[in-house]
């Protein structure tokens, strides 16, 4: 290998898009879209949405493009998860930079329906429970595990759970999102005390009414950043 | 470009090594090693230690190798900071995966002295105050800014500050590390109350004696993880 070729490695991007799915009456679950591969290696196996980084696009642009091409999904923001670069993670040497985002189920449904209606949607995409995945191509099982670990971890110190919620929500909605992320039940009274003490919620004057007693709606205090947005700057944002 | 060449982008690694430097009597400061470039582009400018990713090494191995080759430093653990991939961050297209670590000043001194004694140390490395850097090559000023932001941010919810401290330390040592990271003074009584309430410190039976009244030494509770160690696994760890 000549000196000028050093560092010439194939670079790919993938995305982990997490949503909270609720089947009628069942406990909500974290779900993500997968794409069945139509080419070698791992032809026929499920994989994360993704593709090659092109010369004239940033990493985040490549992640957004390949996600939109396969799933029609367009999260308002993709956060960089990790760069995976083990030597043998693919038959040829590939570094994959992985992005992730949380989407509400109603956003997923609206974007998916619009994509179907466009006539350009491929038929090899399916949503899967994050906790019961098949064996995925490459190291994608490990990547999903890491995304779920980061999600549970961030739930402890950031407002990441609100990525699953509409702008106004009840404390029960918020607790359910945390329970889904953490995979365990939380005591309602303790949960209420903790979120009220944290001071990240702003009570509204609105209530949700229905079969139960009216529940106050809350909004998140947007003075606190939702997520680590990375070293954003004019250079890192999308080029026109 | 043929299909088989898609994604062929040059991949580099860089490292941000942070230490806490104390000049006699002065306020301690965060410092990092820089390397003066001997080749184009940016010949003669200062840059982070780093180099090209080779075909047969993982990202972390490349970061550790290039750091050791230039500075002789060998942190016990390098954490991935971020993958920088803006299209115009370098004259040719380069994706840089950046790692970071905290080193104690005495570790830096011992490793640097051993490297000097080996006779292989290059003469183009210097330590700089993180808060008063010259204009660095590429987007390296932005990378350092991001590393410092992450350090300050992590100080709020993790034990990152202990990366600057020996295994046993006084509360004044710990407060000084936090003050250096955050760039502001902290009230000693409030600080003591907060760290005691957090329960991450284990008091020892040892005291530091000297010109002041004896101060109890503490250790960190190692049941809590020091840092996000990434998706570590047999595949991601170094190959033999």
TrEMBL record, chains A, B:
UniProt-recorded name of the protein: ADP-ribose pyrophosphatase YjhB (NUDIX family)
Pfam families: NUDIX, WHD_NrtR
Stretches assigned to the Nudix hydrolase domain: 8-152
PROSITE patterns in UniProt: NUDIX
TM stretches of this protein: none
InterPro entries associated with the record: NUDIX_hydrolase-like_dom_sf, NUDIX_hydrolase_dom, WH-like_DNA-bd_sf, WH_DNA-bd_sf, WHD_NrtR
